[in-house]
Design goal:
single chain, 94 residues, mainly alpha, 4 helices, extended
Length: 94
Amino acid sequence: MTKTVLQIAIDEEDLPIFNSLFEKFEVESSVIEEKTKPLFTIAVEDIQSVALERLGRTLSDDELLTAKKSLEWGLLTDIDAVYSAIFDEVIENK
């Protein structure tokens, strides 16, 4: 039997609702710690809001792909500057 791995997020207080379902279908589950939670997210909605403000319109799908690639490039090429800003601020606020 092949297995499919899914990552779902369930609030801890809602977890008991799903326990019987997990048991019935013998679902293997594990808790993913908050370590994997993003510290900052830029959603399509955020980009579209800024595009509307700056361009007077929202971006097309092709333009969104360009925006995604530009964002990835910007973060990957200067991630050291991002980390420096983070840790400089942490040290300054001690």
